[in-house]
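Comment thread on ticket #2218

A.B. wrote:
> Attaching the input chain for the structure job we discussed in standup.
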Amino acid sequence: MTKAAAIYNFWSSFGLTAYEENAVPTGDDAPKFPYITYQLVTDSFDNEVLMTASLWYRSTSWAQANAKAEEISEAISLGGKIIKCDGGRIWIKRGTPFAQRMGDETDSLIKRIYINITAEFFTAD
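C.D. wrote:
> Ran it. Output below, let me know if you need it in another format.
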């Protein structure tokens, strides 16, 4: 599995549809809430990169978005989460700050949680 596919599978494992942030459908194909967008950044052996993701909910309450952010935090855990990819592994760790709430100027019901992670690549290329 490529690095890109491994990162996609990681974000897709939380029960929401995940989209790489540069490939989110628009118009009639725009995703229905809730969903995840994530940044795809890759590197090679022993390099750590910063990545972000956003949880997108539309609700009067932050409860579901907060619960999903907590679920992701617990999945990564304090020691990080190692995922397999072609030629090695990717070590995903919580960034700082891990999660922060954001609103949307166009719709007060949109609840966005911005997530920071780091990923260290233990791969040949």
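A.B. wrote:
> Thanks. Noting for the ticket: Residues 39 and 52 are 5 Å apart (CA to CA).
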